[in-house]
Design brief:
Layout lengths: L12 H8 L3 H8 L7 H14 L5 H4 L8 E6 L5 H16 L3 E6 L5 H13 L4 E5 L18 E4 L8 E5 L1 H14 L5 E5 L5 H16 L8 E2 L4 H12 L7 E4 L2 H14 L8 E6 L12 E4 L2 H16 L8 E4 L2 E3 L11
Parallel strand pairs: 1-2, 1-3, 3-4, 4-5, 5-11, 6-7, 6-8, 8-9, 9-10
Antiparallel strand pairs: 10-12
Helix pairs in contact: 1-2, 1-3, 5-11, 7-8, 9-10
Amino acid sequence: MKSASSVPVRASINDVAAHAGVSAQTVSRVANNQQNVRPSTRERVLASMRELGYRPNSAARNLKSGRFRSIGFVTFNLATFGNERTLDAIAEASEAAGYTTTLLPVTDPTQLDVVGAFGRLEEQAVDGIILVMSAEVGALDDLTMTAGLPLVIVDSDAHLPYTVVDTDQEQGARLALQHLFDLGHRDIVHISGPEISYSAQRRAEAYRRMMDEHGLPGRPILVGDWSAASGVELGEHILREERLPTAIFAGNDQMALGAMHAIHDSGLRIPEDISVVGFDDADGAATFWPSLTTVHQNLDEVGRLATTVLLSIINGQPDAKQKFLVPTRLVVRDSTGPARVP
């Protein structure tokens, strides 16, 4: 009996592409006998296939004429509240439409890794891909789908040349800040998520704009990593400042929770001494001490809409490369109150 280590590893489409010096898309075209490949390139790819022992799977052989009723899902960080909730909604909407989903987490958010994930999904014969692009990955203008698969991006920059579905991040941040302004707060500090995050960027930009619109100087934006631990650290930093702000606008609920922990440890009161607003309305936000005022993201709708748009493209609707924004709503709880009198 052969040991597991002696079993040969089957060559992949990416292995053939690297061996032949072409793209995975070109290998797919050759494997599916498409004609838009130069004869010399076709021969080089076929030679690499023979040398590596590559054989397309049965689904890939039918890619030219078949439908596989499967959607690929690529994400950079499945552990975040938003990505997990979005994936659940996509899986439910896909199942309701008779489609399966294939998940490919990408460890490093780089263009090379994203394109590699696309290649692996092509091998698994999906009809289209939803990319939750929660961080910058480089020159996305050069990002092309293998075999022309439909692509919808969730959580991305408005100026990318793709169909995008996202929470209206600016609207959500404005709701949070307007709530604080209405309570008389003028000295507000913002705890932001990572600088490479599109969501964090848009929420921080909204903070800067609204402070400027109200003629307020604003404080330097503090950058966390979405975790409660970073919220504690930045909360302690805020409390060491010579002048205590009257409110904190945190980029997500976990960092808000950390900041609240730091405030409690200092002996200050929420919201009497300092108000706190979060963003997400994550599970448990209503049970924070005190219950957290936060911006509710309709992530279920984001996932459903992304799936609906992708399926319409798969079924022949022209890809208009639109940007769809899902509105948020403010959930007012006990962590915010009138600004303290100096």
